[in-house]
Design a protein that fits this description.
This protein is of the alpha/beta class and about 120 residues long. The chain contains three helices and five strands.
Length: about 120
Amino acid sequence: MLINLSNHPSKQWSKLQTDEAVNEYGKILDLPFPAINPSAKPEEIKELAKYYFNKCLDILKKSRENNNVVHIMGELTFCFALVNLLQAQDISCISSTSARNVVQNGSKKIVEFNFVQFREYL
């Protein structure tokens, strides 16, 4: 199972990204990324990470898949805290990588991200 903890619901993923996730991990379950106050203190981030750690554990305990991961993308300090908690329990965490294509159209910049692969947090 792949728990998708990001601001990008899997229904909005490209076919390539969805196919790779399903082929590698089986079921995809979306867990919306929390809104994190930019003024939050480190202690608040730690508490939020613990809360999401427990949510992920509860979900994974019910999983019948053999290959379980948490796909986590978002606010960096929260991701770092949560990845550390999950990895301490031998739960794999991954991010998605993409190629960034930029087209300048006069004063407008159009940015398109194209999925390339999933990469494990080290």
